[in-house]
Specification:
Length: 67
């Protein structure tokens, strides 16, 4: 279903080719989103790991600042 346009011009015809292109773009978007999620998870794991290592290497207990 094509997006609705506002204005005085008539709606352009929505062709089978447009539908195929839209589906390809949706698939591409999904793949990109999956890759971004994978990269974010990897970065989060590294951050957690480095935080855990830093905490393990700390000799004095941490004090949380109250704000």
């Amino acid at each position: 279903m094509p997006p609705k346009r506002k204005g005085i011009y008539p709606e352009p015809e929505w062709t089978e080719e447009d539908e195929k292109e839209l589906e390809q773009l949706r698939r591409k978007k999904e793949l990109i989103e999956k890759e971004i999620t994978k990269q974010m998870a990897k970065q989060m794991a590294q951050l957690i790991k480095s935080s855990a290592n830093a905490a393990a290497n700390t000799t004095e207990p941490r004090q949380l600042r109250s704000s």
